[in-house]
Amino acid sequence: MKKPDLNITPFVDIMLVLLAILMVSVTVSTYQEKSVNLPEGSKTTPAVKKATITITIPNADYVIVNKQKIPLKDFFENFNLKYGNYNKNSLVYIAADKNIKYDKFMKVYAAVVKTGFSQIGLLTK
């Protein structure tokens, strides 16, 4: 006598449809229940702080700080002396040429961090 085969394909199909319905209904009810009352933003305060120091590192032996060309060897020694009295919460932008060596960039970055600046932005195209 041949044993009957148990065909579970229709059962799996029904369970997958029920699972999909459950997932959609839970997601819709979750997002409908949450209502967030956001505060109004100030229209007079700019969203971006103005940079007080901009450092440009071209593919050469000098660094440009606030449009002033400084030889690279003098930058490491004199950055702290010249900009050490700036507010340490000031934003510093560093724009480096994509062809410079990594160690040159890291030396400039380290000098800025060593001076005490913590908000440093790296500029890209």
Q: What is the overall number of helices?
A: 3
Sequence of secondary-structure elements: HEEEHEHE
The largest pleated sheet is described as: 5 strands, mixed
Helix content: 40-55%
Across the major sheet, the strand order is: 3-2-1-4-5
- Residue-averaged pLDDT: 80
CATH architectural arrangement of one domain: 2-Layer Sandwich
Structural class: alpha/beta
Number of strands: 5
Please report which band the strand proportion falls in: under 5%, 5-15%, 15-25%, 25-35%, 35-45% or over 45%: 15-25%
Segments where pLDDT lies below 50 for 5+ residues? 31-36
CATH class of one domain: Alpha Beta
| Approximate shape | elongated
- In the CATH scheme, what's the topology name of one domain? Nucleotidyltransferase, domain 5
Distance between the termini: 78 Å
Q: Taking Cα atoms only, what radius of gyration do you get, to the nearest Å?
A: 30 Å
Which helices and strands occur, and which strands form pairs?
Layout: H1 9-33, E1 53-57, E2 62-65, E3 68-71, H2 72-83, E4 91-96, H3 102-115, E5 119-122
Parallel strand pairs: 1-4, 4-5
Antiparallel strand pairs: 1-2, 2-3
